[in-house]
Design a protein that fits this description.
Order of helices and strands of chain A: EHEHEHEHHHHEEEHEHEHHHHEE
Number of strands of chain B: 8
CATH superfamily of the largest domain in chain A: Thiolase/Chalcone synthase
Number of helices of chain B: 1
Organism (chain A): Roseibium aggregatum
Number of domains of chain B: 2
Largest interface: A-B, 26 and 23 residues
CATH architecture of the largest domain in chain A: 3-Layer(aba) Sandwich
Pfam families (chain B): OB_ChsH2_C, zf-ChsH2
Strand content of chain A: 15-25%
Helix content of chain A: 25-40%
InterPro entries (chain B): ChsH2_C, ChsH2_Znr, NA-bd_OB-fold, Thioester_dehydratase-like
Structural class of chain A: alpha/beta
CATH class of the largest domain in chain B: Mainly Beta
Radius of gyration of chain A: 19 Å
Helix content of chain B: under 10%
GO molecular function (chain A): acetyl-CoA C-acyltransferase activity
Order of helices and strands of chain B: HEEEEEEEE
Number of helices of chain A: 13
CATH architecture of the largest domain in chain B: Beta Barrel
Oligomer: heterodimer
Strand content of chain B: 35-45%
Largest sheet of chain A: 9 strands, mixed
Largest sheet of chain B: 5 strands, antiparallel
CATH topology of the largest domain in chain B: OB fold (Dihydrolipoamide Acetyltransferase, E2P)
Strand order of the largest sheet of chain A: 3-2-4-7-1-8-11-10-9
Number of strands of chain A: 11
Radius of gyration of chain B: 16 Å
Distance between the termini of chain B: 49 Å
Protein name (chain B): OB-fold domain-containing protein
């Protein structure tokens, strides 16, 4: 069914506050600013928005809070507050596509904001008690990813050096991005000697803790064509829901990205070799390895050697996480929307020193919970439709 | 009129009650025979509702493991594959540095006021 939607919906505008540490600015204020920026980007305004998609780390009623704060309520014709962690915004993308295609709305706003760094400096977990995990004192979410990494090492011989190369590649890219939060030199030794938090993952294997706000505006392609910016078309999407608690993950060394990725490729009618640019949600270094393998960019279990070969670094065969990723650019709690925004930058050709020349098709992949939800979107320039 | 299949305490409360009596139980499905943990109202394998608690053998194998570091030192967190099939998060007692994937372990109920299922190494049990 989604194949019918190929290219029919476009990202018309994007907004990114680039405020990674903004004391005195609330999560909703970050979100509101990003929303204004995204609408201005494509020449629209809040008065044009008739569909709202959002998830929030600290609110169980995000649609209500945000509709009120942005004054959207009276005009809303469609809304979705699906909360599956950091992948939520790509679930929202899929939901918005259906609503737009069905004529249930015309201008959809997907938005997010967080102040987790300036408000306390720690990732703020959702109130979502897990009584069968809680007694054992695992660090949430880090220990869950550590358990996946340990299993991946056991099954495939992945090493801490392999994981470290993910962090190094991210830093090489962030050095080319003036908006990235961390741009300093980083050596293999520094990554390997970073403080161990939950074996085998160290602080250097973990994403940043930042503030931030992001938004994208979606319309049908015919409308997007007449707006200010070059439309970036959604060629295909796929989602997968796997588990809530890490012990319930069917295979700790294989994520459900293989499902969401295959669905997105099929809907887009493209193959992996058509993809010029890749964004994968790197909450921890192990995520990049898992998703590159499970999406099919390298053989299962070969993610470590693939990344250590320099393949995903600047100048490599597959540009991945060109903004610096969650590891070096920004990570305001739920990062998923930022994968889409960097894909749009690359397809518009506006990524500056990190621009991938001639990029026409980009794959953005987001993860939520503890490898729990997976969502993949394939985006293309107008001539790919 | 309620549906008698679902009468009585829910599976979470029933499991906790058994644990308080010193029994570490898993559910078996009367329809497909699969064991599951954590307990639930339905069989996550076949959708059946005829679920019965039985004492687990306690036998298990470490499926994955991590040492959680803090100023007080390291503590183990493991995912244990139970002999009956399901996996659960738990802790292997003893030196966390020597817990490895594949280690054979045996369940024990630890703690009086709030009992929890932990695991000992089989060769030491």
């Amino acid at each position: 069914m989604t194949v019918l939607l190929r290219g029919k919906i476009a990202i018309a505008g994007t907004g990114n506050t680039r405020r990674w540490y903004a004391p005195g600015r609330s999560a909703f204020e970050q979100l509101a600013e990003a929303s204004v920026l995204a609408l201005e980007d494509c020449g629209l305004g809040l008065k044009d928005v008739d569909a709202l998609y959002c998830a929030h780390s600290t609110s169980g009623l995000p649609v209500l809070n945000i509709a009120e704060r942005l004054g959207l309520g009276p005009r809303l014709r469609h809304a979705d507050g699906t909360m599956v962690g950091g992948a939520s915004f790509l679930f929202h993308l899929r939901s918005a596509m259906s609503a737009l295609a069905a004529g249930q709305c015309d201008v959809a706003l997907v938005c997010y904001g967080s102040n987790q760094a300036s408000a306390g400096g720690k990732l703020v977990p959702m109130p979502d008690p897990q009584p069968y995990e809680e007694p054992y004192g695992a660090r949430y979410p880090l220990s869950s990813y550590a358990l996946a990494a340990a299993r991946h090492m056991h099954e495939y011989g992945t090493t801490r050096e392999h994981l470290a190369h993910v962090a190094l590649a991210a830093r090489q890219w962030s050095k080319l991005n003036p908006d990235a939060r961390e741009r300093g030199d980083l050596s293999l030794d520094e990554v390997l000697s970073a403080r161990m938090i939950s074996d085998p993952l160290t602080k250097a294997d973990s994403c940043l803790v930042t503030d931030g706000g992001a938004a994208v505006v979606l319309t049908r392609a015919d409308m997007a064509r007449d707006l200010k910016r070059m439309p970036v078309h959604v060629l295909g999407t796929g989602i997968a829901v796997s588990h809530r608690q890490i012990a319930a993950m069917p295979d700790l060394a294989r994520s459900a990205a293989h499902q969401s990725g295959a669905a997105a490729l099929q809907a887009a009618g493209v193959s992996l070799t058509d993809i010029d640019h890749v964004m994968v949600y790197d909450a921890f270094t192990i995520c990049t390895l898992l998703f590159l393998e499970d999406l099919g960019f390298c053989a299962k279990g070969e993610g470590g050697p693939f990344v250590a070969s320099g393949a995903i670094s600047p100048g490599g065969s597959l540009p991945v996480n060109t903004n610096g990723g969650g590891l070096s650019c920004n990570h305001p709690g739920m990062y998923g929307l930022f994968t889409l925004i960097e894909s749009v930058e690359q397809l518009r050709g506006t990524a500056g020193a990190r621009q991938i020349e001639g990029a026409k098709i980009s794959l953005a992949h987001a993860n939520g919970g503890v490898l729990s939800s997976q969502a993949t979107a394939i985006l293309g320039t107008p001539d790919t439709v | 009129m309620t549906d008698p299949r679902f009468d009585g305490p829910g599976p979470d409360a029933a499991w906790e009650d058994l644990l308080g009596q010193g029994v570490f139980a898993v559910q078996f499905c009367g329809n497909c025979g699969i064991a599951q943990f954590p307990p639930g109202v339905v069989c996550r394998h076949c959708g059946g509702t005829d679920l019965v608690f039985q004492a687990a053998s306690g036998e298990g194998t470490v499926y994955s493991t991590t040492t959680v570091r803090s100023r007080e030192g390291g503590r183990n967190v493991a995912v244990v594959q139970l002999a009956e099939g399901p996996r659960m998060m738990s802790r292997v007692e003893g030196d966390p540095e020597t817990v490895t994937i594949g280690l054979a372990v045996v369940a024990r109920i630890s703690g009086d006021e709030t009992p929890v299922v932990v695991f000992d190494r089989k060769e030491q049990a």
